Structure prediction request, 1662 residues.
Amino acid sequence: MKRSLHRIAPLALAGLVLAEPALAQEAAPAAAEAVGGGTAYIFNTLLFLIGGFLVMWMAAGFAMLEAGLVRSKNVSVQCLKNIGLYAIAGLMFWVIGYSIAYPGFEGGYFGIANFPYAMQGVGEADTGTGYSVASDWFFQMVFCATTASIVSGTVAERVKLVPFFVFVTILTGFIYPVIVSWEWGAGWLDAMGFSDFAGSTLVHSTGGWAALMGALIIGPRLGRYAKDGKMAVFPGSSIPLATLGTFILWLGWFGFNGASQLAMGTVGDVSDVSKIFVNTNMAACAGVVVAIIFTQLRYGKADTTMALNGALAGLVAITAEPLTPNVGMAIIIGGIGGALPVIFVPILDKLKIDDVVGAIPVHLMAGIWGTLAVPLTNTEVPFVAQITGVAATGIFVSIVSALVWFALKATIGLRPSEAEEMAGLDLGETGIEAYPEFTRTT
Amino acid sequence: MKRSLHRIAPLALAGLVLAEPALAQEAAPAAAEAVGGGTAYIFNTLLFLIGGFLVMWMAAGFAMLEAGLVRSKNVSVQCLKNIGLYAIAGLMFWVIGYSIAYPGFEGGYFGIANFPYAMQGVGEADTGTGYSVASDWFFQMVFCATTASIVSGTVAERVKLVPFFVFVTILTGFIYPVIVSWEWGAGWLDAMGFSDFAGSTLVHSTGGWAALMGALIIGPRLGRYAKDGKMAVFPGSSIPLATLGTFILWLGWFGFNGASQLAMGTVGDVSDVSKIFVNTNMAACAGVVVAIIFTQLRYGKADTTMALNGALAGLVAITAEPLTPNVGMAIIIGGIGGALPVIFVPILDKLKIDDVVGAIPVHLMAGIWGTLAVPLTNTEVPFVAQITGVAATGIFVSIVSALVWFALKATIGLRPSEAEEMAGLDLGETGIEAYPEFTRTT
Amino acid sequence: MKRSLHRIAPLALAGLVLAEPALAQEAAPAAAEAVGGGTAYIFNTLLFLIGGFLVMWMAAGFAMLEAGLVRSKNVSVQCLKNIGLYAIAGLMFWVIGYSIAYPGFEGGYFGIANFPYAMQGVGEADTGTGYSVASDWFFQMVFCATTASIVSGTVAERVKLVPFFVFVTILTGFIYPVIVSWEWGAGWLDAMGFSDFAGSTLVHSTGGWAALMGALIIGPRLGRYAKDGKMAVFPGSSIPLATLGTFILWLGWFGFNGASQLAMGTVGDVSDVSKIFVNTNMAACAGVVVAIIFTQLRYGKADTTMALNGALAGLVAITAEPLTPNVGMAIIIGGIGGALPVIFVPILDKLKIDDVVGAIPVHLMAGIWGTLAVPLTNTEVPFVAQITGVAATGIFVSIVSALVWFALKATIGLRPSEAEEMAGLDLGETGIEAYPEFTRTT
Amino acid sequence: MKFIIAVIKPFKLDEVREALGGIGVAGMTVTEVKGFGRQKGQTEIYRGAEYSTNMLPKVKLEIAVADDLAGQAVETIQQTASTEAIGDGKIFVFDLASATRIRTGETGETAL
Amino acid sequence: MKFIIAVIKPFKLDEVREALGGIGVAGMTVTEVKGFGRQKGQTEIYRGAEYSTNMLPKVKLEIAVADDLAGQAVETIQQTASTEAIGDGKIFVFDLASATRIRTGETGETAL
Amino acid sequence: MKFIIAVIKPFKLDEVREALGGIGVAGMTVTEVKGFGRQKGQTEIYRGAEYSTNMLPKVKLEIAVADDLAGQAVETIQQTASTEAIGDGKIFVFDLASATRIRTGETGETAL
Ligand SMILES: Nc1ncnc2c1ncn2[C@@H]1O[C@H](COP(=O)(O)OP(=O)(O)O)[C@@H](O)[C@H]1O
Ligand SMILES: Nc1ncnc2c1ncn2[C@@H]1O[C@H](COP(=O)(O)OP(=O)(O)O)[C@@H](O)[C@H]1O
Ligand SMILES: Nc1ncnc2c1ncn2[C@@H]1O[C@H](COP(=O)(O)OP(=O)(O)O)[C@@H](O)[C@H]1O
Prediction:
């Protein structure tokens, strides 16, 4: 599904107040349901703005989730990484990212159009598109930031600030935009019929692959996997912050999925947004319940952090198609998503892939699952396109990410000294302890 | 006041763009004020969506408030209970809850209609109702979750996960929906003229009664009330988290009360929503100031936790009628609400009713106060109906809740072993310490 | 730029559905872009409501930021101050503040009109203004609270509750409203052509000057500046809470600046709101990146707290004119803002002005910078008016604030005893420890 | 004078303190510690990974007493703190060479 | 060698440390503790319930010193830490059988 | 019996504990402390202000051992905890007058 201006073209202002803007609806609506073109423009724009600020808020969610799941000696750096990556994403997406993501091609692989991206002038309205292009840009930008947030969680506690920020610069200025151009930007995947409504693959798997490459190339935290096969457990420093982060992300997801409808200027569109809200919510609910039941049955205790991961995995899973499932299917899709972290977190540990917050199961695996599940409820989407999209994203993002991580490793280096890592990155990288007054057990 | 589809019927799409949808207004508006049917539909739906995500966010508020007010050894379990109860509420309200809450009767006591509830199809609009039914369902669902959140705070630190979740399942799937059907579902209380705008009784008192029964049947925390009459104080583990939770709830309440106007597709409705915002805000302000002044005068110190409770009690009090009071009256209603926790928290302690977060004064008592205060500003509401509504809710919820709590006690048991409770529920129930690195005084 | 009812007058409901309400636009829009009067009314009101709740949420942001940056022994009091000041601001702005802020004069210095302010009646719409006056009032009230929040951060950890609350009462009931009346209330500064879109000067500098006077008159925290010139460092107790607070503020700022467009009932207005979102976001991004780079280069470490301050300073800087800059200029304005705390925090320390959270560089200095920068992108604004506005605000606020602080010092006293300050204000002022269970290093 | 170091289970603290007060012990100093001994920590699961916490939270009391009170103090602690379950802790007694009350400069048993 | 344990009021820590540095004490180990003694905690109100906190925050210093420095060290601590208000704390002195510097393995007074 | 107090670098804790277990030390009590000595803290920058943290986090072990194990225990700690860098810490040994196991009331070496 394209997400470019073309996607909205049919909604552009018609020449007549009473014109029929809701092409998506089967039957022609009665005149009573008609919404004037100017009004529809405002609604569409408002959807982007509300969706945009909700997704922006997810940056705080990632920050809190990660601050809660790393050890206290690395919390300040984790906070800094999160606010820094959002800022870099904003700047890079403006300088070049958006121009790569929406190059204006049809079915292409790579293109760039008009950069840096210019917004409209003061008081001007983009009546040709049916919404304000600035609102759309803002909504797109926060998605870009989300992708980067995913990476920071996995590679936490062991990568230095500067190489991390360099990676984010490339991810948000190049890697993510290229992937977006393939589908939402009307590129070759879109031409194939690939469908990823709000970005299970484009956003979440992209972040997940980049994170996985990071975890592999940077290596696990010191002392995490002993040579004798024993594994050290590094419990997160603050479960309430991790819980808060999850709730923030859940809230933000209403914007993430809901506003990905891209229009609410017709009664049909706003009804679809509502349906997306319900499905998004129910998938997360199911993810939580499944994770609780699974851990309770498997370990005799319900793991709080798995319940949090379950919510997020349910959300990621439904993101590829939050509209066509009925509620029952949304629950199933989200519930299966919720099982993935419970299953894959221990497996990653066996493979000695150190994913501090569980971002790989949550974003990569549930993202793949959600994308492959689209044809279950949306019969217009060819399964082969979904497979192709998943694979192509995986290959491109993994290769380019790996190259970048390796290049950083070979040049400025990725990790602090062992002593610095042991003492915590906060001391060496930012000099600010997160909780300077509390006596801590080391 | 009904809250069912019927409530909105007059707002349903008329056959004409320029039709007059704002029956609530006294004078017929000039043509200039008219809003087209499709546009009104979008506005109404949008109100539910915005209100819905704001109330969903209250789940995070309860989680943080409670995480801040329990002792650190029970924080992880409290977080898990809060995310779990929201998830269960979502699932149960879909499976059966909504069908009981809105059975389609007039003046009845119990009914069920079409379950599980089906949303509209993709691209379809519910033009017969004047808003998307999915948006309405979502808005109703988050209210259901709020009711359950109230309970978790009172019975914190001593009830096991599984019986708690079983109670929540019944509360959100049966008890709360029945109460809703009596009023918003056009049941017998509605027929009497009972009025509870956004749920001081239906939501807050219902949660409060269920919590009270829990507190009585589960009993106080170990060591809280010594035999010699002395009382142990268990200070909350994190005042900033409790403060954050209160601010989240306050924010969410704009959705809770504001969107309970149920429509903003006319100039009159959106103006009323605005008035509700102001009154809601001012009642909370008054609650804070009264609690600060009261504790300062009574104890020589202003109690932070009481100021937080005061804000919430002010909010609960105005919830039964946030529209008809002028600002002065809203301040009075909220201010009296704010005094209730200051007065009743010590009384509950004397009665050895152990309410960890003060949910009973805040939600039950301020809820009763607010409901009884409705006739002060809304002369159409008979006082006797309000009394009846308060009493009937109290009787039904208390009896059913007590039965459930007793049944759980008799079967799977409600409390962990003394040793487990002493060690903190986090260890025994979830195995995840909330703050594993911080040295704690026990 | 006026912000009074007059400002919107051109947008008031025209007598015709198809009338042209978007006078701001150069070219007359096609009929297709027209938005009916009633619809525009709802959009305008909705903008105030959304903006209002986002700015209300900033109160939580200040609370968390400050709770994170004070020492743990003062955290409960800081939380109490923050919720209390918001409540007082709400009450005072209703009793008298709004009446002073919008006295209905043209070009005046001081006036009062109809107090306390009455909202519209139930079901009534303020069709003469083009939006619900209650929504406008709410939006204005939360700005008033923001001003007070700024002060609490600077003077934290050493001023008693009661004098602080008395100061807030005067600030929100008198000082801030007078300043507002000069510009947004159509007073003499507005007549000069002074322009402060969303309040870099009116809100942020006003708070900043009041804070500066407080810091000077109350004096630094005990032991902060030794006689031998050495400075003690009092690190903040929780960096993740400070980070959370910053993200909350950032989110709220979309409401702060975006809704200061004051209308979104035309395609031009909503497009401008979108542009404001983008510029606001980009200024903050630039502030973060500049602060990170500056501290990294200057100290070899990137200071997390400076990155947070940088975001906020970027936001304050763009607040005076978030609409006319193109994205590049927004980045420059925000980026220079972000440099200010890095430069001025150490200078204030050299001057022994103890500003606990950096509110003076962030709100006062970046506020001045932003105000003076308006003519760079908005050529209609005379530089001399900007200088005059900055100076007049500084003089008036400083003098009145100083008088109030001195009066409080002379009467009830500003500071607790040395022993109480040393033990932490939490013990003496509220009796509630913020983190009672954690062992702390003193 | 003797100096007693007792490591006990945290939830026994109040009881022990009251019992000691009962026999005339005027003061003590308390520290949160982690204990390691025969008692094994639970095997915990964190995100699917088993681990055992063999450092268990304990409370350490330090009590200076006059010689003649020492025996009784040890006995009182032992009896009050015992739950007869593994991990109840230890009591160590030392000779104390001198004691000073900071406020007054008093030394010896009157300083306690 | 002697081993001094001093329990003092937390805000006196810096002063005491400096004073000890002045007389040649090279190092010390500091622990956050809770003290219980004659000084009674404030009666606090929490949510309308009175309670008294009789465990007060103190800081414990542990200092190994050569025999000839011990007396002076005790005196320095006593004088610096005293506020002449109740709860100022105690100083306990022990005989130290041996001391080892981990870095070098040195023992005896040179290890301090 | 002897009572050993060892102050070590925190990250050496696990290693030392295992080494001591290897020579038959059955238990110990561990406290988070701050150390002050020759090792100087880093000079830190906080919001543009330099400051030095000369209190460094350390871990204190308290270990009661039978007399004949004492020497070996000290040696083991010294060797395991040494990084040959400044700030490795100290080991202090005291005579222990008596030891009691709270659970059973046993005293003497069998109580350890
Ligand atoms: N040799 C020792 N030296 C110092 N402390 C010890 C020693 N052995 C045990 N402890 C302390 O006593 C606590 C209880 O000891 P443990 O062996 O678990 O049980 P028990 O005392 O019942 O035999 C330990 O957690 C530890 O704090
Ligand atoms: N017998 C004791 N053994 C160990 N520590 C003690 C003893 N008595 C007092 N202390 C410590 O000394 C502190 C001060 O003692 P307290 O009796 O309150 O005041 P003062 O030393 O001024 O008489 C206590 O808080 C406690 O930490
Ligand atoms: N005289 C002392 N008494 C008690 N503890 C000491 C003493 N000197 C040093 N320590 C402890 O030993 C630690 C290491 O000492 P330090 O002088 O920094 O290094 P080193 O032991 O390598 O010479 C200190 O941080 C402190 O905890």
